[in-house]
Amino acid sequence: MKRTVIKSTGRYVPPRVVTNHDLTQWMDTSDEWIRQRTGIEQRHWIPEEGGVGSSDLALEATKIALERTGWTAKDIDLIIFATLSPDIFFPGPGCLLQHKLGLNSTPALDIRQQCTGFLYGLATADAYIRSGLANKILLACAEVHSTGIDISTRGRDVAVLFGDGAGVVCLEGIETDKDVGILASALHANGEFAESLMIEVGASRLNPRISEELIKEGRHWPVMDGKTIFKEAVRSLPNVSQEVLQKSGLSLEDIDLFIPHQANLRINQFFQQSMKLPEEKVFHNIQRYGNTTAASIPIALDEALEMNIIGDGSAVIFLGLGAGLTWAAVLARLVG
Ligand SMILES: CC(C)(COP(=O)(O)OP(=O)(O)OC[C@H]1O[C@@H](n2cnc3c(N)ncnc32)[C@H](O)[C@@H]1OP(=O)(O)O)[C@@H](O)C(=O)NCCC(=O)NCCS
Is any ligand 1 atom within 6 A of the Cβ of residue 227? Predict the structure, then answer.
């Protein structure tokens, strides 16, 4: 049977560290408020002068993952790029990354699932691989949020949450009788909540798409109904985890580690408690990176592997909820 396995991982965050205390020079906030509500202590942002896009961060993470796999860029059959913060409005960063890797005809597609981009990306790659359309896939997830948030007091509820970074995985199809690789996935969306977390300007439904008035109103910044997102996350994440357990035939006790999207430490602690899991079974690193959206789960996976919390044979559930709303989970058994 054809199975999609995670061959290698890579992560990259820009070197500039922005602490909660640093944020107080631009907005009325405090280290205490941010830590208590979110768990975040610091995040990485690209240089203030800009000039770095999501594909640049993804390139650095990709170099690491390719080296670990022993692939060259030419071995890749398909690039899937997940981001909500593309370098330019279009074309998407999949094509930009492809070019930066020295390729000139490898297909590249972009998915826009925000915080569940990695999960939708894994499920898409798995479908490509199992159907025989591709066998070696680079799934790149990267975000540059720091240039797209309102760092004045008006935008503080959103601005304190987000960090820049990239996480990638190399995926390969193998023929095996063993239950390894991606064993189950569950994807969901509910567009009813589309405006609970969004950036509106410059969108096609506005004419003109951008104007001084729209900018004055701040409609080019992200807006978020944090309480709704929080409530939906706490409600959906246990259900979607049970769904992949059921699909795979595994039980809760079989899972070595849950790697949730890193949106808020409190959301993930609620998840751990409602699933009655011991603390060490749920991975957190939001303290150091903030919310890096599509990149957060692959960055966390890369760290968990580096810390030897998981390895060959470990069963892992990746899960998350974010803008869309979209929520999803993927259950995979790692191979060495
Ligand atoms: C954003 C979030 C931390 C806010 O926490 P909350 O408990 O809902 O806080 P509220 O929005 O009710 O704000 C409480 C107060 O803090 C203030 N506040 C908001 N952001 C602040 C900040 N960065 N620093 C200081 N005060 C802040 C508010 O203005 C409000 O003040 P008021 O009571 O005088 O009106 C929380 O809702 C959350 O994490 N939601 C999920 C968001 C998420 O996961 N988003 C990403 C999806 S991928």
Answer: yes
